[in-house]
Amino acid sequence: MNMQNTTETSGFAGRWVSYREEIKVLDATIRDGGLMNDSKFDDRTVKAVYDACVEAGIDYMEIGYKASKKVFARDRFGAWRFCDEADIRRIVGDNPSALKISVMADAEKTDYHNDILPKEQSVIDMVRVATYIHQIPTALDMIKDANDKGYETCVNLMSVSNVLERELDMALEMISTCEAKAICLVDSFGALYSEQIDYLMDKYLRYAKASGKEVGVHMHNNLQLGFSNTIQGIVKGANFLDATIGGLGRGAGNCPMELLLRFLHNPKYNVRPVLKCLQEAIEPMREELGWGFSVPYMLTGFMNRHPRSAIAWNDSPEKDDLVAFYDKIIVDEEA
């Protein structure tokens, strides 16, 4: 090998064994995983995830939703659908660690004026607003409200795989003017491939960088691409990364935290506490909650649709009849 080739190879290798200090990792285990059990995690499980995040050097833990009690009944959903201050403090106290606490507030499902307290009264650090494209005016008001109260903010624009190009451009132009520090590219249905991630990241970065914002990625695993699409987002310039321990999340789940931390090469991250939490707190729930790759989730990913039909099928007596589910969703699509 000549010197030129050696130099080129060394430079290429360097890009994969170095790390970007500006990258931040957010753990969404309890928040996204709560979609599989109505947010009914016991305190021991939430504390195990919190302790793992602290010990692993993870930057943010999204501990749940700030959902409206007028929309979600308290007797049906667990504490982590609402994230009242007393419940969070029962787990984290005053949170003396470097880990920041995040909550997700869904547009049109959050009584944000009343339920999101001023920052000086809360242990929460960041409010992430999740919005569909038709809810953006509400989302922008939510971002302003949270920002004015002293929180870091982020916008998660959902279901972009079903959004028309012109509408997505208009949405990103509107979002780029708000107070949020980051805009998150969300593959809600686990339907996107790397080429689409490339294209969308270029678009998001164009709007975000012009207004001084970062871009994040939140990937689902319907096609077993959650991790690889997260990597693709990193390569393109995403600096806010979502993952969950064991991939726990709605339906097929998310990019697994234990994979992501090892990929990042940053010595501040320690995967051992994550593996301990996975072994002791997360994996014992797998049979009951049933997240992770399955053929019904794969098929909804292929069809670019919400996995609710696959979730229902996996809970039905017909769950082992994969051909019947295939026939059903193909018929629904053609109808």
Describe, in plain words, how this protein is organized in 3D.
- The structure is a single chain.
- Helix 13 packs antiparallel against helix 14.
- The protein has 15 helices and eight strands.
- The N terminus is likely disordered.
- Strands 1-2-3-4-5-6-7-8 form an eight-stranded parallel β-barrel, surrounded by four helices.
- The termini are far apart.
- It folds into two domains: 269 residues, Alpha-Beta Barrel (TIM Barrel); 41 residues.
- The protein is of the alpha/beta class and 335 residues long.
Strand order of the largest sheet: 1-2-3-4-5-6-7-8
How many whole angstroms does the radius of gyration measure?
20 Å
Shape: globular
What do we call the CATH topology of the largest domain?
TIM Barrel
What's the domain count? 2
The CATH homologous superfamily name of the largest domain equals Aldolase class I
Helical run tally: 15
Beta-strand content: 5-15%
Order of helices and strands: HEHHEHEHEHEHEHEHEHHHHHH
Number of separate strands: 8
Could you name the CATH class of the largest domain?
A: Alpha Beta
Q: How far apart, in Å, are the first and last alpha carbons?
A: 60 Å
Overall CATH architecture of the largest domain = Alpha-Beta Barrel
List keywords for this structure.
single chain, 335 residues, alpha/beta, TIM Barrel, 2 domains, 8-stranded parallel barrel, 15 helices, 45% helix, 13% strand, disordered N terminus
